[in-house]
Amino acid sequence: MLSSSAAGSTALASLSPSGQWDGTPGTGFAVTPTDPPRTTAKPACRLVTVPGQRFTATHVVGVVAFANDGGTLIGGIDRVRFHFEGETRDVLEMTPRTFMRRDGTSYRCWAYWVALRKPAGKAGSAQLFVEAIPADATMQRRVIGPFLYSVEDALHDLAIEVAATPAEMPGERYKTLEAAIDYAKAQSARNPLITVTETGTYLPTETGPAHTFTNWCTIEAASGVTCTIARDTQLSDSQSRIVYVSDHICFRNVTFDMRRIASIQSANNTPFWADRCTITNSDPDRGFARWRGNLRPHGIVFEGNSYVTDCRFEYLPNPLGADAALLRGNFVTDGTQDVMGDAQCVVANTVRNWDSSEWINGRPILSVTYTGSEATARLSAPIVGGDTRILTATWGANSATLTLGKSEADFLGTTGNAYWPSHVVDWLNTLPDWTATLLDDTLVAFNIDVAEGDPDEDASGRGGNKSVLDINVKDTVKTCFARWDVHADGYQQRWGGTDENVIIAANDWQVAGQILFISSTDPYEKDYFIINNIFRFLKTAADVQGLSALAQQAVGVEPPSALHMIVAHNSWVNQLLRMRWDAGFAPDGYSLIANNVVQGLRDQGVASAPAGVIVNNHIYATAENSTAATFTSVGGDATTLFADAANADFTPSGDLLTNARVPVLNWDAHGRERKALDAVGAVASGFLTVTDYTLPSPPPSPPPPPPPLTEWSFEDFSTETTGIGGQAEIVSATIGRTARVEGGNSGLVLALPPGTYRLRGTLTEWAGKGATHLRMSSGSLVTPVNFTPDAGIGLYTANGVVDCTFTFAAAGNLVLRCGVNARSFTLTRGGNPLVQKVG
Hints:
Elements: E1 13-15, E2 44-47, E3 54-55, E4 58-66, E5 77-84, E6 87-91, E7 95-100, E8 106-117, E9 124-134, E10 142-151, E11 159-162, E12 173-174, H1 177-186, E13 193-196, E14 200-202, E15 212-221, E16 227-229, E17 242-244, E18 247-252, E19 255-257, E20 264-266, E21 272-275, E22 278-280, E23 307-309, E24 312-314, E25 326-328, E26 331-333, E27 340-341, E28 345-347, E29 350-354, H2 357-361, E30 363-370, E31 377-381, E32 388-395, E33 398-405, H3 408-412, H4 421-428, E34 434-438, E35 448-449, E36 469-472, E37 478-482, E38 489-492, E39 500-505, E40 508-511, E41 514-518, E42 524-531, E43 534-537, H5 539-545, H6 548-551, E44 553-557, E45 561-568, E46 571-573, E47 576-580, E48 592-594, E49 597-598, E50 600-604, E51 614-615, E52 618-619, E53 633-634, E54 642-644, E55 649-652, H7 655-658, E56 673-674, E57 687-688, E58 711-712, E59 718-721, E60 727-731, E61 738-742, E62 746-752, E63 755-764, E64 771-772, E65 774-779, E66 784-786, E67 795-796, E68 800-808, E69 812-817, E70 823-828, E71 835-837
Parallel strand pairs: 1-8, 3-10, 11-12, 11-13, 13-15, 14-16, 15-18, 16-19, 17-20, 18-21, 19-22, 21-23, 22-24, 23-25, 24-26, 25-28, 26-29, 27-38, 28-39, 29-40, 38-41, 39-42, 40-43, 41-44, 42-45, 43-46, 44-47, 45-48, 47-50, 48-51, 49-52, 52-53, 64-70
Antiparallel strand pairs: 2-4, 4-8, 5-6, 5-9, 7-8, 9-10, 30-34, 30-37, 31-32, 31-36, 32-33, 35-37, 54-55, 56-57, 58-71, 59-62, 60-61, 61-70, 62-69, 63-68, 63-70, 63-71, 65-66, 65-67, 65-69
């Protein structure tokens, strides 16, 4: 195991695959990490970075992990252990990192960070597992993964462009995204980059055959280019979806206009990644934009376990989808219905002006009256859950019915059912003494109702087809509305959805509705963390809806039981926390509801929780408190507990400051470290300065190997002697380097690789040492092997020019010696290389 990163350190830990890894996923592990079956509480542990990426040197991975340790999250995780193809690295604490959104705003994300590094001389795909180890020994460890990463010498194995007007250049530039994707598939690309280089509107369709991109097929707008994904015509509900047959598509810096696009999905339900994108709706009715006069048929933008990071969403329902693997750093505004459901990791998202009141209140579509002789006249329709609804007109003993429809077939006119309000008006005007006037023909007639607050409104107040229409129209003009039964939630855990290992942290939401609705059918919530969030109820909009009693319930906690469920350091502004004891909510001893500021703690049913589970919360003055809660402080309201809640400044004030408590989490919603005693809620009252981690400079890469030598001079030789009387030396001379050798037991040796070589120089006697004598040999000086050169001679016995060519079939030593005693030579290099490789 590699050493741990030190506590308190801002340096980033790093690791590379083990030596056993051969570039194939999993080959580096002697034993593959596995997640044990859950038998008791485990930490919650999720990636806050997107897996599947490819890198050439270093790639940073972040993980959030939490566990309760006797009533605190501080130190609840002993360590997070990263397993990367057989090598491991322990990270002991969270540190902050700053991210930048597309609009230039930034936010901090606390996590356990590690830098994956490419090993020298290796490439391929590698698996990462992450193990969260709790401090509480009675808990189990949690292992997540494997997550695939690729380490290669090039970031992208294919790069092509898309531009609508220039001529196509096969293999380099195409006019459509589909053509570019098809080319990438044909090349079996693993991590292609498709760059849109011309501003315009593009439709990212794709047909078969399917292809799995090992990493991501990234579709990206070039700097200064606006790439808009949109349709120019309305298609059928099914055709309006954009369905990819290939896996792992990433969109970066592009704009989606969803006005005529129902959703974006994979045929195999594999994830998409949207990064720094804008997802909008150009319809002039914005958040009240209708699809065939009704709600959108597929309210989810990206279907499947997608990754959505640093995007902007506006004017859309359910924008962050269902079952998303990661939602991080997104800005979501002016939408309706739910914000998200069943997401697994939700970190640092901002939601503003989330208001479904236009749908709930609806719009007037027609007026109707009966002025005949009958004493009574009524218009009625029942509550229905299907696609047809019967509208009945009754006057005296007479009656007539009209079938209303809302399906696509009804819209196309193939069923004979009434679809638009004009169809209803035309029908009513055929009845004796009935008069109807069309007010708006852009909303589906199926949802006919009266206005919110009308004396004839159904007592349920749910609206539209979820309420009974039964109105008196005798000698009175009654206005009918199209209304919808919308129950907006910030985060809804849908029945049968994700109920284990969920993290909702450091978000800031403003929602007119139930901000959290947690309701498991597993039947348990397991390792569920809701921490450091600002939850602001958009009160004025809810008052308009007439749903303040429902909307004031911030959390509907309705599981039969909750195992290791943590709700800590949240600031609910004008919101109650409702606990459904009557529906079986029963937190265990690992659970914790602590250090929150909330309008009130409402018990629905008889409360029963272990000691220390609901503790140290703050509620508004005169608010209701749970009988299971201890050490609850009371006082103030939204106007006094925060510096300026109306303008989104939730710095603690008033009673929050005078009731400071020991934090159970050491950093706040803004990524700042809390003091030893601090205000409860999401925002610290006074904070310590924390430095973002620093990525240490990677160790210097070894210098590239020098190019193979092709020339050698005397400095590359060694001088050797074998016994007494011999002498060999290399000296300087004005013309060039000079070597002098005396006797047969001395010489010069040069190691050479296989090849053909040329030796050139000028030969003279070493004065006073004996007559000139030079022999060329190979091997070693101790046992030289004489050889015959390819050209020239191997033995020189007179002064003159040396010029010969020889070949070594295998690596060997060139030996220059006298060959016999009492002989000598002086060899001088002129303007040419002494030894030169020529073949």
